[in-house]
Amino acid sequence: MSQQQIPVIVLAGFLGAGKTTLLNHLLHSSRGSRIGAVVNDFGSIEIDAMAVAGQLGDSTVSLGNGCLCCAVDVSELDTYLERLTRPSARIDIIVIEASGLAEPQELVRMVLASENPRIVYGGLVEVVDAVEFAATRLRHPELDRHLRIADLVVVNKADRVPGEELRRVLDTVASLVDRAAVVTADFGRIDPELLFDRKAVEERVGQLSFDDLALSGSSPGDADGTAHPHAPEHLHTAYETVSFRAAGGLHPRRLMDFLDSRPEGLYRIKGHVDFGAADPDHRYTVHSVGRFLRFSPEPWPAGDARGTRLVLIGSGIDTTALEAGLDRCRTLPDEGTPEEHTMWGVLRYVPRQDDPDAPADHPYPAEDPEVPDRV
Length: 375
Fold this sequence. Notes:
By secondary structure, this protein is α/β, with parallel strands linked by helices. It is built from eleven helices and 13 strands.
């Protein structure tokens, strides 16, 4: 588990909601991160500035900023994930853009069921058309179910809806989601930090990249190709970030109680946890999107200071309450040696390993295929 895993995000939404526009925005805003895009409906994709990148064959396009897009049937998904996760591809994030009539739950299950050790589930992002929301629910009642399983809901085209109507849409969406974060967007522009950690912009020589185009004045358009000059400057996304540090260990059971009760709108948790005397030999990388949770133990790096470092990202979250909740997870000086089985709650979310060097006292449990938020 020491190898850095690539998050795989499922991007869903009905026809016209703005999925491709949002994907284009991510490509414009990658700032050095290399995005692999698996497109489940290649005929509809309209990636801006494709002409400068060039096309390589009928189903694969190599883009100037290192993005790689593959037209794919869902049955071929694992094959393309294997290809995109090869070290030679140097991909940092993979986005699966579902077709407008796809069943997102099936794509999520395929990602979670993948045996590719180089990927980790990055969440289900459901894009909703604020203008056509009521009409879409009438045509596609399954939208309500899609919203319930989403980890992040983007209410797109918010700029085209009067304030009172937008509030009604947001209230309805909030009543349908299950703890998902809900953000609004104009032209699919959300802050990529919600989805992935951008790298520093790399110097490039030769072919223009999407970043180059965006910074030189090109602007992303809507799905119909209409340009919006102000697009690169304005993000219609509000979210909050909590950074938490603890020099001592956290109590495993109290931390699991905190994670089990994490509030609505908390989308991502990332970082590493020190469980102190409960497992002094390892630190635990934690990765959470929506309801999905995974811990990955690894030996403490030589020379690294012990401690917990976490970042929590969400929309409409009470940052003060989150900080207070994490503070209550600290191990107290007078608690003494942890009792037996203290780590079992954490180990439920550690992937099963065939590594013979894995500690014998780490009974990695079998996966439960019926539970979507377990590894």
